[in-house]
Amino acid sequence: MSLRMLPSTVRFAALYLVALLAGHLTVLGEPGAMPVIWPATAVAAVWLVDRFDSRWRWVDAGVLGVLTTLALVATGMRAEVACVHGAAAVLGALIFAFAAPRVLPGVWAAGSDPERRGRPLATLADLLRVLLVATAAALGAALVGGLGEQLVTGDDVLARTAIWLVRDVVSVLVFGPAARRLRDLPGARPAWPEAVIAYALSAAAYYYVFSVNERLPIGFVLLAITVWVALRLPTVLVIGHVMAFGTAAAVFTVHGQGPYASIEASTRGTQTLIVQLYVGVLALVGLALAFSRDERTALIERLRASEHEATEKAGLMTTIVNSMTEGLAILDQHGRLVLRNPAAGRLLGSTSTVAGGTTLGSDYGFFRPDGTPLADADMPYHRALAGADVEPMDVLVRNAAVPEGRIVRFNVARLASPGGPQHVVVVFHDVTADRRHRDELMSFAGVVAHDLLNPLTTIEGWAEVLETELAGYRPAERVARIQRAAARMRTFLNGLLAYTAARDGKLMPTTINLQLMLTDIANSRYDQAESSGAPPPAFAFGQLDAVEADPVLTRQLLENLIDHALRSVPPGVPPQISAAAQPAPNGMLRIDILDNGRGIPPGMRQAIFTNFHRAEGHGGPGLELAVCKRIVERHGGTIEAVANPYGTGTRMTFTLPAGRSAYARTLENQWQHRPQTGAAASNRG
Q: Which residues form the Histidine kinase domain (predicted)?
């Protein structure tokens, strides 16, 4: 045995001997009777739990058994019966030491290191698990001890086995928590005046019930004092109260005093069992109430800490939101303002921080950037509440607070709230200066493009003259380079002019039969392919309803999209273009144009609609799709590019106002009953 282990074993052995002697003092009747209080069971359990991971644990178990046997023999018990009791004590302690660290992880842990001993009992779940472990250990010890004693003495020891079981369970309940609480919480500061009053009143009540008026069976009223102590005093003092006055009840009964001493001497076993049950109930009531109060207190502290933390974070978040230069607003499912910061009020023409449930609608003076009115249903947050994916949208705000007008960009996102009401958050950004600067640049570019067309025409004319005069000579190849560069320059200038027209030109909407317009464009592209010897494109048109739009801009939109689709097809592959339409929310018509080209990488599907973007492999000066986006937006629609869901290529999807006039319906009926001729008819077949 190592010197390091020796002090721990000696300390536990000395404490165990004291517990044995103290328990022997509570024996009712003859020396061989069962004691009422047996703290040795709790000491033995804690001893082997503490030493269970040591390689000397079996030595400790042996010392425990020898001490139990010798102590019981010294008190007058027969040696063979004392050996049975010693073996039972060792078995019960081993069962507890094996089960406690597993059933109560973090509460009772093996090892002499103080850092590994875990926390004390603190919850009702801990108390229940201790009760289960103590019952299992006591049951094992009682069965071995009872059967062994019956084999040695030949007497029926069923009643003694029951007393043994209850005694050991009560011992662990009363003295087990004390082994941790009294050691881990030596510095607890209770309300000392109330503690002194409670202990003094308890002493007086126990003295009265067990000594002054012992014939009156009113011991149950003492539980009320235990309830008071458990609800008011710190848990360490509750444990001390249960230990002190539970032991006092047993001592009074041992000396023939109290309501339980009136049981006849012939039924000493019953008397012992009743006293033990009283002490057990006392311990369960006191510990259960104390632990539940501790849990409630801990929960309240956590809630208070969480509330304090949430309050601090909310204050910090409010400060951050109110100091933002961008506007921020939160709207409920009905489009009513829940909250907005001061910047949002300034941008929208109001100064209040909270809108008090008002609706963010047309009364604020919302228009499209070209000045046309913007209906509430077309606002991006309404579309987001309807479940649509909304891109950032520029809105002209003009009201009494902002008479000169301001362009505000709306960035909208839905707030995830599963099972609850839907909300959207809107971030406002003033883009007036940016748009003015951009518009000035584009206007300047349009003027420059128009002015450059005349000298470009001169260059193209003289290049044609030079080509004619140098025909057959080597320098003619250099003239061809001039002509190709001039052609690229003309395409670029025409694109600038088209974008300027799409941006600044006055809209003249009318009812347009998309079927007729797309058929005409398809026939022209079929003729171009036939004249150049390229593979003829195949067009397939589905249901195409009429739209209400500017016919010039709509034709430019469709031609640009079809030309982009044709250019994206790899060389040698016959182009296949299809188009169809279907109704969309808010009175719009959704048109899909699909191709079998190379497709557009996911990271570029938004960038292709920006000014001067040139996608690799798609050619073009980078303005055709920007013109398309501008035309669609001027009509109040949206445009996007996604992968073709039916194969390779791209699906261009855009929306335009649906045709509303009777003329539009007439055109549709005429088209449906019209015989199909020409290239489009053959392609549809």
A: 447-660
